[in-house]
């Protein structure tokens, strides 16, 4: 059995020294295996130093969020969305959606995330699943127009909402999954589906955060 990449484990321990990563199959996408936080998370409040580290450098890439699972499932079940196409996974985190696109037959997958730890997680997780993805930090450096841009859980911060107008500059089509904005309205996007999932490992979040909506660019 392949061990977890030691560099990625060290990145986790820089923030959460009391936690470990383990290889996990996703409940909604058992085809995909990711290096994620172990399910038996420490109970009770974190030590002060760890709490500060979590605030300053959250290891969000060590979870597979509900929207990421739903969007990955969408691509696996509808491979025509990505087959032989160029795909950008924006705000990739663990890389789950980009990996799903690669497994579903995408010709080229570009995982984009500003966080260097997330970039490493994408590389490690792609290797775990036997697929090739390109990883970069700044989407502005992409010099091609992709066929499809996918994004999961990028709207949790309302300051990110202007991205909805910018993302179509990078791809002919855009597909977004989100569970954080309760009343999503935007003239350039329409709701095309919904599904339920939990973040993995399960954070016992509000039930509303388990209800994921899919939105597609109005072409």
The CATH level-2 architecture is identified as 3-Layer(aba) Sandwich
Rg from alpha-carbon coordinates? 17 Å
For the biggest sheet, the summary is:
7 strands, mixed
What are the low-pLDDT stretches, counting only 5+ consecutive residues below 50?
Answer: none
Q: Tell me, what is the CATH class?
A: Alpha Beta
How many H/I helices? Answer: 6
Mean pLDDT: 90
Number of self-contained structural domains: 1
Strand order of the largest sheet: 5-4-3-6-7-9-8
The secondary-structure element order is HEEHHEHEHEEHEEE
Please state the structural category: alpha/beta
Q: Tell me the β content.
A: 15-25%
Distance between the termini: 46 Å
Question: What percent of residues adopt helix (DSSP H or I)?
Answer: 25-40%
Broad shape: globular
């Amino acid at each position: 059995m392949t061990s977890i990449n030691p560099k990625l484990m060290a990145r986790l321990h820089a923030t959460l020294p009391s936690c470990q990563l383990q290889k996990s199959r996703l409940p909604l996408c058992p085809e995909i295996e990711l290096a994620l936080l172990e399910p038996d998370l420490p109970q009770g409040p974190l030590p002060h130093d760890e709490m500060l580290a979590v605030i300053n450098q959250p290891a969000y890439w060590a979870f597979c969020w509900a929207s990421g699972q739903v969007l990955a499932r969408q691509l696996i079940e509808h491979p025509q969305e990505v087959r032989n196409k160029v795909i950008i996974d924006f705000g990739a985190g663990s890389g789950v959606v980009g990996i799903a696109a690669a497994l579903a037959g995408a010709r080229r997958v570009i995982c984009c995330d500003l966080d260097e730890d997330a970039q490493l997680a994408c590389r490690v997780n792609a290797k775990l699943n036997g697929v090739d993805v390109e990883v970069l930090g700044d989407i502005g450096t992409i010099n091609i127009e992709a066929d499809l841009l996918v994004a999961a859980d990028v709207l949790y911060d309302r300051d990110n909402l202007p991205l909805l107008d910018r993302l179509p500059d990078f791809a002919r089509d855009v597909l977004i999954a989100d569970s954080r904005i309760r009343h999503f309205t935007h003239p350039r996007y329409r709701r095309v589906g919904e599904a339920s999932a939990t973040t993995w490992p399960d954070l016992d979040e509000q039930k509303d955060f388990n209800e994921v909506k899919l939105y597609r660019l109005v072409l």
